[in-house]
Amino acid sequence: MAAELLAITGATGFVGQTVLDYAARAGIEVRALARRPQDARAGVEWVQGDLNDKRALQRLVGRASVVLHIAGVVNAPDEKGFEDGNVWGTLNVVNAALEAGVPRFVHVSSLSAREPDLSVYGRSKLRGEKIVKASSLDWTVVRPPAVYGPRDTEMFELFKLARRGIVPLPPQGHLSIIHVNDLARLLLALIPGGEDVTHLTFEPDDGTPGGWTHNDLAKAIGMAVGKRATAVNLPASVLRLGAKLDAAFRGKGAKLTLDRVGYMCHPDWRAGEGNQPPPERWLPQVETAMGLHATAAWYREAGWLK
């Protein structure tokens, strides 16, 4: 698994921090991009800059054996915000890798790219994928489903609501999820490249046959926080109203946005059965009920969950 030098974007984020943890355990030397100064970390060389800073990107990928592009925009006030981060940012990283002669590129996308007409976010992630796939790089694309685990601020909203006993959800449907530890292990397992992973797109999940219904996941999160949570399936019109209210109260910090409602209401966000990574490389290890309990415990210890 070891690489001479792994260049990472998005290393300060939820998934990126976990990747750094696993890279350290594997003895992988890392160079990581960060917009702000970071505390020293063994085995990590920080490069200050962002996806629009071409000089920083040149420093990031110089001498790298592989680029792991995790950085992306999940929430933005307008289409330009998604385009700048997920399309132009990806283009800048790809160009830097090509100019530096980096042989390997692992790109983290999203299941939302599968249905680009449902949201600006999904459309921007698909465009980012197309840039990677059109390049001459030795690429692999990973489309994670909903990711949960310690440090996550997105699914944390469901844990907070479940603590109150009621979890408002989209209309009934199915989805897949994955623990951040399993996703981090997969990304590092893809470093070497090879015929079994090169020029392929993978949709990993937690291994639950048939995925999860919205209601079953809400109940499992309720159990994790010690509550018998009632799942309430809301129509799209109510979710859109909720998004407007969230924007009014939290502004740019809103978690429920109109764009997010667009893909939340899609009935099937399960990972494709034929798109799983090769089992010889990776299999999920975190059983979800245990993972949810451990995540809730982390939230409590961190003071996030009262």
TrEMBL record:
<dbReference type="InterPro" id="IPR036291">
    <property type="entry name" value="NAD(P)-bd_dom_sf"/>
</dbReference>
<dbReference type="Pfam" id="PF01370">
    <property type="entry name" value="Epimerase"/>
</dbReference>
<feature type="domain" description="NAD-dependent epimerase/dehydratase">
    <location>
        <begin position="8"/>
        <end position="191"/>
    </location>
</feature>
<dbReference type="InterPro" id="IPR051207">
    <property type="entry name" value="ComplexI_NDUFA9_subunit"/>
</dbReference>
<protein>
    <submittedName>
        <fullName>NAD(P)H-binding protein</fullName>
    </submittedName>
</protein>
<dbReference type="InterPro" id="IPR001509">
    <property type="entry name" value="Epimerase_deHydtase"/>
</dbReference>
